[in-house]
């Protein structure tokens, strides 16, 4: 079946059964839309993770062996923090309430901290805080005890104005981050006056990120629709030209969410990007159909609506098919993504784009057959301003093609050089404005206590073996020396070294690991007799004969690039030094973030390369020329390079959010070049010279390309109204990259084709 027969079949279907098609679309929309109300939102972070990843499996193992690996740090600030007995009594009650929360397995603070005191018989374990200081003498004695116990910068700040409570979260995945955050905020609200509280935890940061994204989507989705309607009204000056593309967008969104409902799929927070993407992208095909339909109606006022529609479908049917195919391929490249939810979103957006293409070639022509053409089309001066503008820039870029190409090449090289400064990183703190409550809390806690996030190392074997304990010391010392982001470490070896020093009369020189395993076991037995017996639940699976332990690494910031470096370096150090010792592996939510961030970005770049190659192959086959494939993909490839270079210059990191940009850029960016080259070839086949064909292509198809690009740019400009920094950056990058692509199609490609006059356009 050749292309002409396909277009004739489409026209006959649209022209003879318009009411049936419209009724069928409405019926399907109602059936699918019925299930939209059953769609469930899944805001949990755990649904985003690949559960078969080795680190995820180790985290689940840690949850079973110990009381979790994630922490929450709540800091309290007051000038009379340690000198006021009423304040201390109040904060003691706060600790009791915090410990009563189901998700908190243990809370560490000065109220339950114990310290080792040397005695003639060895050592004894004594609570750090026995009585609240009532006068200046008691206060200075208490301060001296705090300094000797080593809790300064761990539980008390250097200036003694801040105290922290470190709560151990007893699950890494199986809890609702939103409910946990609300419970913490409610508890803090009960105690937060006159003292000031600061809360910091990776799960709370993640929940706040999700919450901000969802809230912003509710705000700027209507803004995107309003801006799109405004642009289409300016472009087409017709309610038909305005609402038909948005009917397609609306139906596409309903069908996509309806399918999710019928398949009983939940929507993760990343799914909230679907409406905005479809609003910006899904109306492209309808814009081209309506633009050409109006243009042909204007140039041929004597033909009937059916005749104009037949010509429109024949001219634009295949180009929008190719544009839709390339966009779908680019989003399907998300199947290489490390996150299951990202793969799911790629499939759903591809489905929505497919629906929008099908509705554009069936629903829009069916409506156009039934409604009258706008009256302004018959006016002689209709759209002359835009026409004259497009004709002038076509003549300019072909007349001054050498200076245009040279200037753009220099600009491209200069901007692309910024790629060398491109960073791959995700720091959740930078997602929020500096004035945000969460970022202030993270900064305060980071400066006073060395951070609120931790990685952990899971170790298996005979934990009381002196060799293993010395290996733990060797490993933690190596990590602290290599990475300044690691502010503190805590392990069973630290406890044993303090007990050894206490048993031998005290002194820092005696804080060493004994060579006798039995002596180590005796230390732990004596400690257990003097304590509550549950103090080592976080680091030992069994206090008598432990076979598993975890080492904690406190992080100053959640910098995923640094975390990934720590993981790689630590794995190499373990392989080189402990190859014949007990197994050791890094784990924890922060570790997972670092590893996944690098995997995601690396996979996204691979998918970018794959989609570029596939689209190049498709364009080569369509135009039956490798040069044609190169010209079709060149502006988009250049735009990718310039976009990455711009990110390097502006110090915008490539992370999980910005890496999604490549799908949009590849999928949408090639649309403009496809339409330009396809219609340019049609004009040349009609006997026009290359420059005449370029001018007429701009006049007939240029408006569709221009309106299409402006629609995408304006649609994503709604993201600038977000208070969420990554969403703003995402919007700016999309707008910039699409502008690059649009300029490439309307300036560089005309100048280049005019210069080389490729032979494939004449075949």
Description of the molecule:
With 763 residues, this protein is of the alpha+beta class. The protein has 25 helices and ten strands. It has a four-stranded antiparallel sheet, with helices on both faces. The protein has a four-stranded antiparallel sheet with strand order 8-9-7-10, sandwiched between helices. A hairpin with a 2-residue loop joins strand 3 and strand 4. The longest helix is centred in the first third of the chain and has 35 residues. It starts with a helix and ends in a 7-residue tail after the last helix. The mean pLDDT is 80.
DSSP summary, beta strand count: 10
Helical run tally: 25
The residue-averaged pLDDT reads 80
- Spans with pLDDT under 50 lasting ≥5 residues? none
- What is the spatial order of strands in the main beta sheet? 2-5-1-6
| Gross morphology | elongated
- How can the largest sheet be summarized? 4 strands, antiparallel
- The N- to C-terminal Cα distance equals 20 Å
Structural class: alpha+beta
Portion of residues in helices?
Answer: 55-70%
β content, as a range? 5-15%
Rg over CA atoms, rounded to whole Å, is: 33 Å
């Amino acid at each position: 079946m050749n292309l002409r027969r396909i277009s004739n079949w489409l026209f006959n279907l649209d022209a003879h059964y318009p009411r049936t098609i419209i009724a069928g679309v409405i019926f399907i929309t109602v059936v699918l839309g019925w299930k939209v109300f059953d769609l469930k939102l899944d805001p949990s972070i755990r649904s985003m993770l690949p559960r078969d990843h080795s680190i995820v499996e180790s985290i689940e193992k840690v949850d079973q062996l110990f009381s979790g690996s994630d922490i929450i740090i709540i800091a309290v600030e007051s000038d009379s923090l340690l000198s006021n007995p009423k304040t201390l009594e109040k904060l003691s009650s706060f600790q009791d309430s915090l410990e009563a929360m189901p998700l908190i397995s243990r809370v560490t603070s000065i109220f339950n901290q114990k310290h080792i005191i040397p005695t003639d018989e060895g050592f004894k374990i004594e609570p750090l805080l026995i009585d609240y200081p009532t006068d200046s003498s008691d206060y200075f004695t208490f301060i001296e005890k705090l300094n000797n116990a080593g809790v300064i910068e761990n539980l008390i700040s250097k200036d003694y104005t801040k105290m922290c409570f470190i709560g151990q979260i007893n699950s890494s995945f199986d809890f609702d981050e939103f409910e946990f955050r609300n419970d913490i905020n409610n508890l803090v609200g009960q105690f937060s006056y006159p003292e000031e509280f600061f809360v910091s935890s990776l799960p709370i940061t993640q929940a706040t990120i999700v919450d901000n994204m969802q809230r912003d989507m509710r705000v700027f989705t209507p803004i995107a629709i309003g801006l799109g309607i405004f642009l289409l009204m300016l472009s087409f000056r017709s309610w038909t030209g305005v609402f038909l593309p948005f009917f397609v967008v609306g139906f596409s969104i309903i069908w996509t969410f309806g399918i999710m409902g019928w398949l009983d799929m939940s929507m993760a927070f990343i799914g909230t990007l679907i409406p905005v993407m479809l609003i910006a992208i899904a109306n492209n095909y309808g814009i081209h159909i309506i633009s050409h339909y109006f243009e042909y109606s204007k140039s041929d006022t004597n033909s009937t609506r059916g005749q104009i529609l037949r010509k429109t479908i024949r001219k634009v049917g295949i180009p929008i098919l190719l544009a839709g195919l390339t966009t779908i391929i680019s989003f399907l490249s998300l199947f290489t993504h490390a996150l299951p939810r990202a793969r799911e979103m790629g499939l759903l957006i591809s489905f929505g784009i497919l629906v929008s293409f099908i509705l554009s070639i069936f629903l829009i022509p069916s409506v156009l057959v039934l409604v009258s053409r706008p009256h302004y089309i018959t006016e002689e001066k209709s759209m002359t301003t835009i026409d004259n503008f497009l004709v002038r820039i076509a003549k300019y870029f072909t007349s001054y093609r050498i200076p245009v190409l040279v200037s753009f090449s220099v600009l491209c090289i200069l901007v692309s050089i910024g790629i060398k400064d491109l960073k791959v990183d995700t720091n959740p703190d930078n997602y929020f404005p500096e004035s945000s409550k969460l970022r202030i809390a993270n900064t305060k806690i980071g400066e006073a206590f060395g951070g609120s996030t931790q990685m952990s190392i899971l170790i298996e074997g005979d934990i009381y073996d002196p060799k293993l304990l010395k290996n733990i010391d060797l490993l933690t010392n190596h990590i602290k020396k290599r990475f300044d982001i690691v502010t503190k470490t805590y392990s069973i070896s630290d406890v044993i070294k303090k007990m050894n020093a206490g048993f031998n009369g005290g002194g820092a020189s005696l804080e060493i690991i004994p060579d006798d395993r039995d002596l180590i076991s005796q230390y732990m037995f004596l400690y257990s007799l003097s304590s509550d017996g549950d103090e080592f639940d976080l680091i030992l699976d069994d206090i008598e004969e432990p076979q598993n332990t975890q080492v904690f690494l406190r992080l100053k910031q959640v910098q995923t690039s640094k975390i990934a470096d720590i993981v790689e370096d630590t794995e190499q150090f373990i392989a080189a030094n402990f190859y014949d010792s007990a197994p050791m592996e890094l784990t924890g939510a922060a570790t997972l973030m670092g590893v996944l961030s690098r995997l995601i970005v690396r996979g996204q770049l691979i998918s970018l390369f794959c989609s570029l190659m596939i689209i190049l192959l498709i364009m080569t086959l369509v135009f039956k020329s490798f040069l044609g494939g190169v010209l079709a993909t060149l502006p988009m490839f250049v735009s990718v390079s310039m976009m990455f270079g711009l990110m390097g210059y502006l110090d915008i990191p490539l992370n999980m959010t910005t890496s999604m940009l490549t799908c949009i850029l590849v999928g949408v960016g090639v649309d403009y070049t496809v339409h330009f080259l396809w219609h340019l070839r049609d004009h040349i086949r009609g006997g026009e010279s290359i420059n005449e064909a370029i001018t007429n292509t701009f006049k007939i198809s240029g408006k569709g390309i221009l309106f299409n690009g402006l629609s995408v740019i304006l649609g994503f400009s709604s993201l600038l109204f977000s208070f969420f920094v990554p969403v703003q950056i995402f919007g700016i990058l999309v707008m910039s990259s699409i502008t690059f692509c649009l300029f490439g199609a309307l300036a560089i490609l005309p100048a280049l084709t005019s210069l080389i006059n490729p032979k494939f356009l004449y075949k």
